[in-house]
Amino acid sequence: MPDSPVTLRDVAARAGVHPATASRALNPETRLLVREDTARRVLDAAQTLGYRPNPVARSLRTRRSNTVGVLIPDLTNPLFPPIVRGIEDRLAAAGYVALIGNTDGDDERERIVFEQMRARHVDGFVLATVHLSSALLAEAGRAELPVVLVNRLAEDHSMPSVSADNERGMRLAVDHLADMGHRRIAHIAGPQDVSTGLSRFRGFDAALRAHATAMDEDLVVVAKAFSIEEGHRCCRLLLERGAPFTAIAAGNDMLAVGCYGALEEAGVRCPDDMSVVSFHDMPFIDRLRPPLTTIRFPHYQVGTEAAQLLLERIAGEPGPVKVLYLAPELIARGSTAPPR
Amino acid sequence: MPDSPVTLRDVAARAGVHPATASRALNPETRLLVREDTARRVLDAAQTLGYRPNPVARSLRTRRSNTVGVLIPDLTNPLFPPIVRGIEDRLAAAGYVALIGNTDGDDERERIVFEQMRARHVDGFVLATVHLSSALLAEAGRAELPVVLVNRLAEDHSMPSVSADNERGMRLAVDHLADMGHRRIAHIAGPQDVSTGLSRFRGFDAALRAHATAMDEDLVVVAKAFSIEEGHRCCRLLLERGAPFTAIAAGNDMLAVGCYGALEEAGVRCPDDMSVVSFHDMPFIDRLRPPLTTIRFPHYQVGTEAAQLLLERIAGEPGPVKVLYLAPELIARGSTAPPR
DNA sequence: TTGTAGGCGTTATCAC
DNA sequence: GTGATAACGCCTACAA
């Protein structure tokens, strides 16, 4: 039955009314402009005919598509599915759909995807890309397209954004180690040109200060990427430097997994000889040996909140720009123990 | 610059030509209808003006949206991101975009999402849901909407589909065990109302026959879901039954991970006392202890091929329905060894 | 409260 | 080969 080349005219005809009136009756926003019984007739007609408004035509006319562009580096990075799911769920509840674009961290691809989405008249953007060319932001601004940043901040807080509180998360991690008695704590930091890498590093620094400990440069290595290989390399580097330490705070789970490999190679046992704490980006990390102690982030909620913020901007709600931080949580597992 | 309220008229005006001509020149399909130098002029004008065709308007006129609906159970199930990514990439190359819908395996949700996508005038569907109500298929058929099935077959092969060759995969797994000398091999099967669960079970049966071994009913348990908990429960059940066996072929990685837990509890060491082989659905499974021997499936290619098939149907290419199987591959790791 | 008319940007079908 | 014209389906001033 729901074969749908049935148009507004058909509904209007059946209801014995002009298409314009039918349009008004069907649109919740304008229904009050039409007499109740006519509205009822139109609605009935639409119902029995199985009328579905054509979103394409509507889009062309209203220049709004009920569509949102979501730019992420790569959907197969386990970090993103829960975020995207959160975005989709919240958007769907408001009658919107998400167009997902994978940029692979490539600026050129990012620009292309962005343009294609603009061409499709998306009503706004959720930007979760790693590097974000300010050119894009400028263009979105020029086109008055609402934008919400995810996992990334505008330096000047001029853009709405949602992210996990990385600094606080790293504080939790270091506090956990310190509470167990660790004093010489190393950090394998993520890339410093990425906001998560940078803010976790800052959090590490701040946490040490809070414990009245100065940061030892020998105990910090910056990884070139959030990868297992880099984690492995950096951990080995730390061990080779010879400066003593009893715990590692890794920039994320990938780096921590790399650490496991390097520690095993070096015959350093975890957690007996070395504690490892990390940032929970991934499923199954609790099945490693030993199960990894991590900071858990509410990824799904990051998604829903980002969508919420975007919908508010799209709806033209006034008010100040919102910068939202979601609290992380320490999940203590088997990779941390008091130092010997 | 790429502010784009520049329309076809603008281009036509600048090229000193009628919009219709500009349209022809810009459209590769019809370019040959226009004189070469005029075409050139139009293209130049479009170039300098930064013209971007408006896909919404085009859609309205051509009754095609360059949009495809993709129904999956849940994006956060690690099985799907690579498939979706494959679909998106292939579609993007053809100027299409995917609308992702999560059904959570719920029939009602599935229907709703399907309807919403129909309302958005998608040009076709990729259906990767677990249970698939035939009502949906019927409706798609009635609307002459192309559909491609993923990881699922139409019983009568009446629908194009792409899936990994589950039977063959299970054969590889059992062959691997048999080659090592295992004779008493247990199977923890996935739910039998799900096509992957069923076909892997069939493959298990066939593989045993190929080795001239009858299936021992005591050595087969059917899980209620592809979950760690069920894997745990089923493995314990197998052990409790008391029938001797030296290897387990699990229906997928989740079940295998559950086995690890149950084996450890029972003091059965893997791979010394018990080999485990599984189906690769997930990243990081190689980081378990011991690293899991699995059958790897080309998920990404499943996605690209599905998109390809769909695009062919959308383009109205004639020809028979294609049912495509992609070959799996054995990845031997540490969880399998010869029996003692 | 309802009808009229015009147009969103594009393409298909005519004519010239 | 190119121009004119008319939709595609919907919305919204404006008029009645």
Say what oligomer this is.
Answer: homodimer
Number of strands of chain A: 12
String of helices and strands of chain A: HHHHEHEHEHEEHEHEHEHEEHEE
CATH topology assignment of the largest domain in chain A: Rossmann fold
Unreliable parts of chain A: none
Mean pLDDT of chain A: 91
Largest sheet report of chain A: 6 strands, parallel
The total of helices of chain A stands at 12
Termini distance of chain A?
A: 73 Å
Give me the CATH architecture of the largest domain in chain A, please.
3-Layer(aba) Sandwich
Largest interface: A-B, 47 and 46 residues
Helix/strand/pairing class of chain A, anyone? Answer: alpha/beta
As laid out across the biggest beta sheet of chain A, the strand order is 2-1-3-4-5-11
The shape of chain A is elongated
CATH class of the largest domain in chain A: Alpha Beta
Rg of chain A computed from alpha carbons, rounded to a whole number of angstroms: 26 Å
Proportion of beta-strand residues of chain A: 15-25%
How many domain regions of chain A?
2
The CATH homologous superfamily name of the largest domain in chain A equals Response regulator
Amount of helix of chain A: 40-55%
